[in-house]
Design a protein that fits this description.
Belongs to the succinate dehydrogenase/fumarate reductase iron-sulfur protein family. This protein is of the alpha+beta class. The chain has two domains: 103 residues, Roll (Ubiquitin-like (UB roll)), CATH 3.10.20; 129 residues, Fumarate Reductase Iron-sulfur Protein, Chain B, domain 2 (Orthogonal Bundle), CATH 1.10.1060.10. Helix content is 32%, strand content 14%. It contains nine helices and seven strands. Strand 3 and strand 4 form a beta hairpin. Helix 6 packs antiparallel against helix 7 and helix 6 packs across helix 9. It is elongated, with a radius of gyration of 20 Å. The protein binds iron/sulfur cluster (2 copies) and FE2/S2 (inorganic) cluster.
Length: 236
């Protein structure tokens, strides 16, 4: 049976002075095995102390982002065969986020930035009897924006995010664009005000790592470019 080596960054804050790599052999027992299947095989059959996050197993919850062979991705929707190099996967936690244990990182800062941008409908009109309607064209403008699953693969791959701890990052800004483009929302100005600041859009240098990393094929760079344009238009 074919075996792949999973070289995993291990760190137990109660035992280890610093992180180190540990190799595990994973058996390819059926076609189409995902990286998460390999991690489960290790945890269930070889080392029950291996820590990693997962929940839905189908690319919806966003909990299992890690870095594999240098690229951020979700383990549950990535085939081992898609990314294996010379029979090996090097698996690390998402870069730049505080390490908790093994592949688990602390996402508090990431989510605090998301909450900072008020990711909910702000309406200045009283609620209608049933619902706030949109035309098909207005609804279509949200495609490519509303699908974010908050996995942090984009923000933790962004060099500006690494270098500027206060920078909101691509995920939070994609979520600003999601509401700014929503015909039912009246909060564009207060959100855009936030992005004029040094924590906002001008920290993006169009390096595009975020686009490569997004497992939902979203384009935070394009969303940021739209927000930059709106900020400039607002001045005139
Ligand atoms: S395009 Fe902007 S947000 Fe995306 S990785 Fe580059 S600097 Fe970061
Ligand atoms: S934009 Fe993509 S990579 Fe970033 S948090 Fe959302 S789903 Fe994840
Ligand atoms: S386990 Fe939910 S997105 Fe992968």
């Amino acid at each position: 049976m074919e075996k792949i080596v999973f070289s995993i960054l291990r760190y137990d804050p109660e035992k280890d002075k610093k992180p180190h790599y540990q190799d595990f052999d994973v058996e390819i027992r059926r076609p189409g095995m995902m990286i998460l299947d390999g991690l489960n095989q290790i945890r269930w059959e070889q080392d029950g102390t291996l820590a990693y996050r997962r929940s839905c197993r189908e690319g919806v919850c966003g909990s299992d982002g890690v870095n594999v062979n240098g690229v951020n991705m979700l383990t549950c929707v990535t085939h081992i065969t898609e990314v294996v190099k010379k029979g090996r996967l090097v698996i690390q936690p998402l870069p730049s986020l505080p390490l908790v244990k093994d592949l688990v990182v602390d996402l508090d800062d990431f989510f605090n930035k998301y909450f900072t941008v008020k990711p909910y409908l702000i309406s200045k009109t009283p609620p209608p009897h049933r619902e706030r309607l949109q035309s098909p064209a207005q609804r279509k403008k949200l495609d490519g924006l509303y699908e974010c699953i908050l996995c942090a693969c984009c923000s933790s791959s962004c060099p500006s995010y690494w270098a500027n701890p206060e920078y909101l990052g691509p995920s939070a800004m994609l979520n600003v664009a999601r509401f700014v483009e929503d015909s039912r929302d009246d909060g564009a100005d207060e959100r855009l005000d936030m992005l004029e600041d040094r924590i906002g859009v001008w920290r993006c240098h169009t390096i595009l790592n975020c686009v490569e990393a997004c497992p939902k094929s979203l384009n935070p760079t394009q969303a940021i470019a739209t927000l930059k344009k709106l900020l400039v238009q607002r001045r005139f």
